[in-house]
From TrEMBL, chains A, B:
Pfam families: Aldedh. This is Gamma-glutamyl phosphate reductase. It catalyses: L-glutamate 5-semialdehyde + phosphate + NADP(+) = L-glutamyl 5-phosphate + NADPH + H(+). Belongs to the gamma-glutamyl phosphate reductase family. Its main location: cytoplasm. InterPro entries: Ald_DH/histidinol_DH, Ald_DH_C, Ald_DH_N, Aldehyde_DH_dom, Glu-5-SA_DH, GPR_dom. It comes from Bosea vestrisii. One of its GO terms (molecular function) is glutamate-5-semialdehyde dehydrogenase activity. Catalyzes the NADPH-dependent reduction of L-glutamate 5-phosphate into L-glutamate 5-semialdehyde and phosphate. The product spontaneously undergoes cyclization to form 1-pyrroline-5-carboxylate. Its EC number is 1.2.1.41.
Length: 435, 435
């Protein structure tokens, strides 16, 4: 790490002085920048994104040096290996970050897209047109790449970003943010369009959740459950988030066993730590005699612990007893809860009672059963004959996502650039007045 | 009023006992009903709406008797004539209320509408489908028709409603709510799908704004500015509302005078008390020599007071001086503020500085100027060569609206049945797993 970049990074004890004044200034800067970014052309925003990717590549030595300092502190503090892994950058990871920014530039422009248009009998032409939301605050923890991903997604959608990094990734995030701001400046856009809170003071989070005097339009928490819970509890502004991904795979009575096996193993075990991972398997009693044992055995043989109801306990001695808590639990681990249900109604009722309205799947050859499951399960994403691990903006074709939301307001499911937009109505007349 | 219906109406001193327990129960009832209504067919919801219209007609004597009691109390309390007029029902107004409910039944069904669909290279078929929002709380003041309008719009969109009437319209609203519930029951839907808070206790509003323990998804205030301000200030749940309609008509340098005259007079004076009424006229200095005097004279001759800048003061002795407050003011009266601006940029800057992001219009024959105004004015509704009084869900072709929103989250502009919906993703596979 060069001494120059070290000097740019504020100290953790907040050399910036009063945090309230600092945050107020960030909010005002963001709002002023929002108007310029919101009316900038797609070409100018894309030029900034391309310059950001270039700057991230050029600044790689400084970013990696800052990351080595963050890592040294994290190791000295005895943080967990999984945390260290999320924090760590290397040449390859940094190149992936830069390429992701370049890829976001290449997405279709969401701003100004005509979402609907129609003509009334009086000749007025109405258009509903996508517009930016305004100022998006992103609060994240260990992954420094969020600085680049979130900043780029906000700019692509005509928004400005206020980013609050976890204190353990603060140096890395600060260097990445500097690269992003250079990209903005290179395209003639205000550096305030992507601001990283230049302080580790935890009071910054509280200020953001209060909305910075009306200068934040939405908050996106990116991190563990305790962060999301705090944001959902305290925020006085809208939040795009999910607290849990307690997702279900329901193997219906008319499910093909081979398909159910492939989907279940993928949904549970492809990656156990992602929010789209399955946490509970429901097997219909109509196929339990043929399907339950092979599915449970396959899970166990893959090293997945199985916590089951009585019927499941009976098929393999390695199964342990599931209690009420298990149906509520997002394990994010090689553990699954398994239950036999007496039919479609019971399966839907179980998902609605215990689920988190994130992502749930039915496996069946019966179209009518699939239609009912997809209609009546009130989750952001419902799938028929596909793995729950497709719960991802990239897999949806959104290019990238800033997170997944389980709220019902504005955004739901993967939040890509389209969901980071609001809309307005343009009305074109020839002198019409209202009678 | 019959003694029977009198007995159904709770007393103002809250014979229901603890208001907190009462409101908690309403919230739980609403959430339970939301699942049944949300999965009911369009046919069943429309059948309920038709039965509501019938019930409103059949119960007309009881509703009008209750209204006479409300009116007698309002007159005894010395309430303003404008308030009395909003409160008053007669045979014709009640028939219009019933017909409005029947008309809502005839609207296209918004629930289950496929908003977008696409296929990914792996064969997965994605659909974004409209779903109900859940529980909508509506807080209103004097107009008892809101009970029917809001209840019907919520049911049409698969939502349930918790309605809080102003205490002065409480008896009228209670009778209308009873008719709506009879319609629900006639179609086999739960009466809890439309609940009027059975108490005049003002603590009910506070409980609603706190969200009834997670059982309210959005609040819609319908009433004066003080109500809206309180709701926006205190609500812990999303709000669809507008505080102000400080709307502008900008007469550009290339505006046709006759068109500008017709639009201005209509925008300001067709009805002065609606939120789409114009409150400020901006005249471009490029046409001020020819357009300012005739426009100002026309306003004055129609009995509209004009508060102007120096240039406006010079054209007619009846003009009085506008001060800084005037540019901020939503008069809702026969008063207008008038200013000459040095061009399009200044006009946009004025609207952005003083406006309320509700509805703003440009009059011009210059398409490029119109395009810039429509793009850069950050209002829910922007019009070219048309009156601002088109700011209305009916005029948009939405059939009806529950209100007009100036927020940027989820709904913006007139909030019709489509904006009362959320969405989910349905994913159709043939056994796909994620690599």
């Amino acid at each position: 790490m060069t001494s120059e970049s070290a000097r740019r990074v504020p100290a953790p004890d907040n050399e910036n002085g009063d945090i309230a004044a600092l945050m107020h200034g960030l909010g005002q800067g963001a709002r002023a920048a929002a108007r310029r970014v919101g009316t900038a052309s797609a070409e100018q925003r894309n030029r900034a994104l391309a310059a950001m990717a270039t700057s991230l590549r050029e600044r790689a030595p400084a970013i990696l040096a800052a990351n080595r300092q963050d890592l040294a502190d994290a190791r000295a503090a005895g943080l967990a290996p999984s945390f260290i892994d999320r924090l760590a950058l290397d040449e390859a990871r940094l190149e992936a970050i830069a390429q992701a920014v370049a890829d976001i530039a290449a997405l279709p422009d969401p701003v100004g897209k005509v979402l609907a248009s129609w003509t009334q009998p009086n000749g007025l032409v109405f258009e509903r047109v996508a517009t930016p939301l305004g100022v998006v605050a992103v609060i994240f923890e260990s992954r420094p790449n969020v600085t680049a991903d979130a900043g780029a997604l906000c700019l692509k959608s005509g928004n400005v970003a206020i980013l609050r990094a976890g204190s353990d990734s603060f140096r890395s995030s600060s260097e990445i943010a500097a690269a992003m701001q250079d990209g903005l400046a290179a395209a003639g856009l205000p550096r305030e369009a992507i601001q990283l809170v230049p302080s580790r003071d935890r009071a910054a989070v509280g200020a953001i959740l209060k909305g910075l005097d009306g200068n934040i339009d939405v908050v996106v928490p990116r991190g563990g459950k305790s962060l999301v819970a705090r944001v959902q509890q305290e925020a006085r502004v809208p939040v795009f988030a999910h607290l849990d991904g307690n997702n279900h795979v329901y193997v219906h009575g008319e499910a093909d066993l081979a398909m159910a096996h492939a989907i279940l193993i993928n949904a549970k075990l492809r990656r156990t730590g992602v929010c789209g991972a399955a946490e509970t398997l429901l097997v219909d009693e109509a196929c339990a005699a043929t399907h339950l044992k092979p599915l449970v055995t396959a899970l166990l043989d893959e090293g997945c612990a199985v916590r089951g109801d009585e019927a499941t306990l009976a098929v393999d001695p390695r199964v342990t007893t599931a209690n009420e808590d298990d149906w509520h639990t997002e394990y994010l681990d090689r553990i699954i809860a398994v239950k036999v249900v007496p039919g479609l109604d019971a399966a839907i009722a179980h998902v609605e009672t215990y689920g988190s309205h994130h992502t749930d799947a039915i496996v069946t050859a019966n179209e009518a059963a699939a239609t009912r499951f997809l209609a009546e399960v009130d989750s952001a994403i419902v799938l028929h004959n596909a793995s729950t691990q497709f719960a991802d903006g990239g897999e949806f074709g959104f290019g990238a996502e800033i997170g997944i939301a389980t709220g019902r307001m504005h955004a739901r499911g993967p939040v890509g650039v389209e969901q980071l937009c609001s809309f307005k109505y343009r009305v074109h007349g020839q002198g019409q007045v209202r009678p």
